[in-house]
Design brief:
By secondary structure, the chain is α/β, with parallel strands linked by helices. The chain has 3 domains: about 5-55, lambda repressor-like DNA-binding domains (434 Repressor (Amino-terminal Domain), Orthogonal Bundle), CATH 1.10.260.40; about 60-155 and about 295-320, Rossmann fold (3-Layer(aba) Sandwich), CATH 3.40.50.2300; about 160-290, Response regulator (Rossmann fold, 3-Layer(aba) Sandwich), CATH 3.40.50.2300. It has helices spanning about 5-10, 15-25, 30-45, 50-55, 75-90, 105-115, 130-135, 160-175, 185-190, 195-210, 225-235, 250-260, 275-280, 295-310, and strands spanning about 60-65, 95-100, 120, 140-145, 155-160, 180-185, 215-220, 240-245, 270-275, 290, 315-320, 325. β1 (about 60-65), α5 (about 75-90) and β2 (about 95-100) form a beta-alpha-beta unit. It is elongated, with a radius of gyration of 25 Å. The N and C termini lie far apart (about 80 Å). The model has no long low-confidence stretch (mean pLDDT about 90).
């Protein structure tokens, strides 16, 4: 294993200079810093994590709380987690992944043990039980998600309210007047999960403003659940010509069931989805969609957190603007005889 002394010898500087370059505690000339960094790279030197933590009173670890629930689309959550991990490494931090549904207990464990220097929380509910603990600690934190009250918090998220409005506007511009929302599993709404509630609020508000009829039906996803949901939709709203889907596991079953019923997409029925780009482009009908900017959310969250750790961050809400991409699944509403 390469030692700090060997790096110093290779760079032609003292061991203390190498230490100052690594810690940033003293100003080092640009030329010397670059020479040390080049030696570190060539020799493959890795500072001892324990010694580094003792020297700086930091663990150089960020805790990422990402409850993996059966009613959530895990690939999106993991895509965000990967973005968090890769961005954190560029800033010299490692990730401690907490995947259980412990809620406040996990926050207490992290803040009380010194396991991590800061926290990123995902799967944020409107009245999240973890938030009072975050507000009561000096440890920096960032939410990927938006609670009802953002006072004293830093949050990064897609603007889901604007996302819902954008989907409705697109269908309205195409002449659709009866729109059904195929939503997440019922448990997601029962927990008042922020992204689902905010999307629904945007959908309903804009539909009301445009004079459209909107029906919302949660769905567990999968073929059987989608079949039962779709049968109920056309029983209650037989004139439905537009669907907004915010449930990745319901996308393909919906398209298959519409085909079986002889309803062509988009000639008879238009479908717009809020989903990852990959889901939209690989569906049996390429979906008009608002993509989930998972990588951007993860990257922004880490950058906000690192700014706080460096002493120049502030509490703020960063909402990413939605972008709708038109593909083959949406078209003019059919003319009724």
């Amino acid at each position: 294993m390469v030692t700090l002394a060997e790096v110093a010898q290779h760079a032609g500087v003292s061991a203390s200079t190498v230490s100052y370059v690594l810690s940033g505690k003293r100003s080092i000339s640009t030329t010397t810093r670059r020479r040390v960094e080049e030696s570190i790279r060539k020799l493959g030197y890795h500072p001892n994590a324990g010694a580094r933590a003792l020297a700086s009173s930091r663990s150089n670890i960020i805790a990422l709380m990402i409850p993996l629930r059966t009613d959530m689309y895990v690939p999106v959550m993991m895509e965000i987690a990967v973005a968090v991990a890769t961005t954190a490494r560029t800033h010299g931090y490692d990730i401690l992944l907490l995947t259980g549904e412990e809620g406040p207990d996990a926050v207490r464990r992290v803040t009380g043990s010194g396991l991590a220097d800061a926290m990123i929380l995902m799967d944020v509910e409107l009245d999240d039980e973890r938030l009072p603990l975050l507000r009561g600690t000096d440890q920096p934190s960032v939410l990927i998600g938006l609670p009802a009250d953002t006072t004293g918090l830093t949050c990064v998220d897609l603007d889901f309210r604007a996302t819902g409005a954008l989907c409705v506007e697109h269908l309205a511009d195409l002449g659709h007047r009866d729109i059904t929302v195929i939503g997440e599993a019922p448990a997601v709404y029962e927990r008042h999960t922020g992204f689902a509630e905010r999307t629904l609020d945007g959908l309903r508000t804009r539909a009301r403003e445009l004079g459209l009829r909107l029906l919302h039906r949660p769905c567990e996803g999968g073929y059987d659940a989608m079949a039962a949901t779709l049968a109920r939709v056309f029983d209650e709203r037989p004139d439905t010509t537009g669907f907004v889907v915010q449930n990745e596991s319901a996308v393909e079953p919906l398209l298959a069931l519409l085909r079986q019923q002889g309803r062509a997409v988009p000639e008879d029925v238009s479908v717009v989805a809020v989903c990852p780009e990959q889901v939209a482009t690989q569906a049996s009908v390429r979906l008009t969609s608002v993509a989930l900017p998972a990588h951007e959310m993860g990257r922004r969250a880490v950058e906000q957190l690192v700014a706080k750790l460096d002493g120049h961050g502030s509490d703020e809400v960063v909402l990413l603007a939605p972008e709708l991409t038109v593909r083959a699944s949406s078209g003019p509403a059919p003319v009724r005889p």
